[in-house]
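It would be a great kindness if you could assist me with a short task in structural biology. The full record is reproduced below for your convenience:
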Amino acid sequence: MESKKIHPLVTKANQQLREGKISRRDFLRLSTLVGMSLATAEVLAACGPEPVATQAPVVATEAPVVATEAPATGGIVRGGTLTCATRIERVDNPATFSLISAVQPWRHVIEFLTYTDPAGITHPYLLENWTASDDLLTWTLAVRKGIKFNNGQELTADDVMFNFKQWLTESVQSSMFGAMNYLTLDGVEKTDDYTITLKLTTPSIFVPEHLAQYPAGIVPASFGGDITKEPVGTGAFTMEEYVVGERCVLKARKDYWRNGVDGKPLPYLDEIIMVQLGDDRSADLSAYQSGQVDTILEPNVAIWEALKDDPESTIVATPTGATRVLRLRADQEPWTKVEVCQALKHCHNREKILALALQGQGAIGNDSHVSPANPEYVDVPPYPFDTAKSKELLAAAGYPDGVTVELAVASDWPETMAYVQALKEDAMAGGFTINLNPMPASQYWEGWTDFNMGVTWWAHRTLAPMTLAVAYTGNPDGTPVAWNESHWVDQEFSDILTEAVGTLNLEKRKELVGKLEVIQKERGTICVPFFMSVWKIYKKNVHDIVPTPDEYAIFYETWKDA
């Protein structure tokens, strides 16, 4: 084991591991977040009760390994085209990406400073390493040297500085602004051509995780604001064609900085073609079944149901924190009264909703945005299905005759439509008349933060405080951050969340997150009836598609039989 200084929080986590208070995976996740290499963390997890600290910092330096299966007999095959059914979204600045589907094509062109693997462990990527001070207030990021953008320019600290400016400028409207609420632009400093220092306003262990989030793709400092016009990145592919709503074509670079198992530069594929076949996902299914596409990105439950027994397909299920959040505008009637929000929560028959919306393929939610897939999750029971209690609460709030509301919903999300139809029927007995306002998802996203009542698609994030910070906090003046669609800002919730973000001790962080779950369940203006399983579905002649809970498509090490 390398003889280097070990962060004191790792020493504490190691002791918790010995005492059986955290799992080995939790120890690895926590240790790597504060800068320890995975290899060193694995050694510590296997050896004595307390590591010995010396002087030099322990840093993470290994590039991630993302292959998910052993090569078939004869080894990995290079070449070929992978064809995917997905959406081709209208995009411009990667810092403002708000959909997983938007980043799917572009994550092959632009890359990220870090990478979080399917086990939730974060690795260096465009960074060589990072270190964190003992108090978690100062972070040093070392940029990997020798990496070239596809225009021939070398990646340096100037490019990273430019991206931090994008993320932390409120007017850009990046979700990173709310996520990294522990950091301001004044706290980002260029130390030298390959080093950035971050001076946080409050302690946080989430810096490396946030740098792997989908709005954190790195573009050059010369970027003008539209990635479709300037498709410049460090990724393994170049964007040769991009037609919104139709298709895109990605071609392999010959000079990419990472090598495959054969010692030659990745990727293995020559080309990726992504096609959008319309808003009706049944077209994706038909194209897959007829052999027109090799894989379907972000398949819904109907596609899984149709293909789950297909012998020609590989299907990998992953439990996640992905969900559909029914959110209520806390600043608009009737949701300004907590009793009305609680009444609607009592109208949720959660087992019925899970069965109808997801064929039971998920977990019950408790109206907090914390899922069983998050390591900090505490089993806080949801409100019971009780329409009599709902009517009682409405009467106490001044609605003895019930209330009529309008619910905006994306009609091309079948699991969402099944959810709201079930709720509409059951809530009638609880005093709610819910008028549905269905619309295409593209229209929903145009006004998703404005509707009085809506159901929004939220993706998985590894650690619970990450989601809570980006979706349920405000600026110092109390104004909701860009992605706070519910406009709910609660000072006690925010104070506990700030403490949780700076807490490495998982046992303590779980205690804090449990308090957040209770507050959000009781006072929050969201309903979360379920959390979803997600699937990777692809043909048997395709190999090494990574089963990620966040549903990212990562095809650098994907290959096809000859």
